[in-house]
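Lab notes, practical 5.
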Amino acid sequence: MKIKKVFALLMLVSVMGITACGTSGSDITSDGTTTAASPESQSVPDTVQSLTSEITESESAVSETSMSESEETEVEDTQTLKMTIENTVVDVIWEENTSVEELKELAVSGLAVPMSMYGGFEQVGPIGQSIARDDEQIATAPGDIVLYSGDQIVVFYGSNSWAYTRLGKINMSEDELTDLLGNGDVTITLSVE
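Output from the prediction step:
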């Protein structure tokens, strides 16, 4: 929209320049005689002023909108995804990807995930809906948090190799993770601070 107005202004200024060349407030007829300038040609500067004002107002509105959007983005970027396993808040280093951003959106109102032990090395649970995924074959390690099939979160206290989307890593020792995750099913709560 802004580009169209700037283009229109440039075209108008160009037409004014072409029609104004060689005349001093008067029009030249086809037979070479000079007549007084028409009222239409005198109103061109008013039109230019009007268009200039509209463009300035549009730029101000765009600037205000951009500022509001960047302020909102800044607020969203400062929100941290928090993980609690049973009653233990765990320190997580989250990946910077679309899956984590969508998980963060789900966690805004608190997301409780009932987890189940699987294979003696992981806990897995449904997040309630599918989110963006970018699966790749990876070898997991204790503390890894991954997305499986786009709708399940998996937390490892052992190792495995499969196609997952990386979400983050819990900053705990293997022994601490085994104590926390290796003694039965747990509930993981995701929230946003």
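Observations recorded by the TA: Residues 81-192 form a domain with the Cyclophilin fold (CATH 2.40.100.20). The chain is about 40% helix and 30% strand.
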